[in-house]
Each structure stands twice: as C-alpha cells, then as structure tokens.
Amino acid sequence: MTNRSATPVLFGFDFQANAAIVLMLENIKYMTSIRLEGYEDIEINLNDGSSVLAQAKAVVNSSTDFSNVISNLKKTIVSLSEAEHKSHSVKELIYITNSPNPFNEKQLNPIFYGVAQRSYDSLPQALKNKISKIISSIDKPLDTSKFKIQILPFETDNENERYKCVMEAISNFIPQLGNISIAKDILHKIWVNDVFRSGTKRSSDIKLSKKDIIWPVIVLITQNWNYDEDDYDDSEFDEISRSYESIINTCTERYEFVTKVLYAYNSFHKEAKHSERKQKFIETESSKFLYLFDGEEISLSTTLKEKLLQIIIRNILKKRIQIDNIKNAVNL
Fold first, then answer.
1. I need a surface site. Which of 3, 112, 191, 240 has the fewest CB within 10 A?
2. Nearest 5°: phi and psi at 146?
3. How far apart are CA 331 and CA 189, in angstroms?
C-alpha cells in the first residue's frame, strides 16, 4: 500500500518557513522584501536591486536518513541554475538543508557541525568534484562563486528541539534592536505565519516587506497599555483596552501610522520641555489621527475613540526612542 502520509510535506513547509526566517535575519540590514515560492523556495530582495535565492530541502529523520540527499543536491543545483538565469541580479545562491551530511560522504571526515555555512570555494576538492559533475550536464549552470551550502539543524517532534537554532537566531537578533524586551517565541510564531502566508499568494509580485517584518516588533513593544486612573474608570478602560490590540494590529496604515505620529511629534513645539510637549501633543493633536479607525468595525463612541487614540499615541511616544533604535538597527 502506498504511504500517503503528508507528514514529510508539511515538515518541509515548516522547515522552509523557518529557514526563511534565519536567512532573513542574516540579511535584514539590506533586505527590502522576502517571499516564499518566488523565483525560488526563498527569495530575499536587497536594496541594491540584487537578490538572495535559496532552495530549502528538509529530511524528516535528518540525522540518520541520507538516502535522498544527493537527489536533493541535484534538484537544488538545477533549480538554482534556472533561477539565476531568470533573475536580474543574484548576490547569493544558497542550498539550505537540515541534513548534516548533504553529500552522503562516508570516507571524508564530517565538515558540517551544527549550524554551518560553507561556500563552494571552501569545500574539499572531492565535494567540489561532485558539484562539478552535476553542473556539467546543465546548459546554463549556476555561478559557483555565489553558491553556498547552509545547514540548519531541524528535527524531532519536540518543538523546543526542532526550533532551537531558529530561536537562537531570533535571540541573537533582538539585542541588536536596543534595550527592548520581546518574547522570542511570540515573534517566532508571528514571523512563521507571515512568511508562510507570503508563499500562498498567487501573484509572485506580492512580497513581505521589511516594514511588514519589523511591524510586529513595534507592536509588541507598544502593547503595554498606560493610562491615568483619574482619567478613566475601570469599565471604560476595559472597553478601550479590549479594542486596542485588534485595532493597532489591523489598522491599514500600520507602520506608516507610527511613522506619521513620530514625525508630527518631532515637528511639534520643539522649544517645549518633553513632558509638557508630550502631554500637549496628545491633548491637541490626537484627534487628527482619527482616520486610523476608517474601515474598522468598531462600535465605540467618538469620545471613546479619541481616548483610545490617546492611549495608542501615548505608548508610541513613550517608546519613540526604542522605535527609532529598531528602525536604525535594520536600516529602515
């Protein structure tokens, strides 16, 4: 009977999305957008007009099953060769896999340990020869100077173990954004969902921008609601706070809204003391941003909308230095 289990396929999709996150973080400074299933399994576009193209191949039992690794290598080289010649400008061609032995070598000492990256030039001659043999049959072979093999350990049904190296990459990235506190597991779930959904869009022109990637970080650091107890009673604030999270996460302008608030604040009475300036801005300028609720299904009165908006803006201003640090860190 044929095994129709979808587990290897779903496992492969999971690996692809997580591999995309790792490659994304490696290129975040100069990345403009990312997409699954574009020119390649993973397509990362850079601000100089070039791109990083990657083939992601996962093996369910990667530490013991090497039966298909050569086949995966051949498919990868053929696919990357085709993609390179279709794309305008390619900076890197990456084969990313969870197999620690992508060449099924029994004679050589292991050259891949844990998380690893090896350019074509750094490979032993015997492995270069294997690659050369594959590309010799391709009409337009890939440029080996751009080719890199990357190992991302990713195995078992234990999520802590499976995603360990991806979580480590996220943990290493967060401190680069400044003094912020974000739960890496929450950010991981958001990014996996967003990156995966980018690959389900039919048009290859639909990509996940750097703004889309960084927006959840800004949302997470501004989600701690602050309010003055004298201004709102408990029931009123409960109603406001229940609406806050969904609105700030789904408002159509999202990143642009935060940017506009900060720009308006920076232009507002610069000669005033910060504490006075912030409160005056919230009191007099918040209503100008009521368009945030356009198109939102929200039953709050105009008065409550204004108070909700003041809470949102107060949190944005409170975190403005952290937001600027995040934007600067990722060159946004």
1. 3
2. -100, -5
3. 23
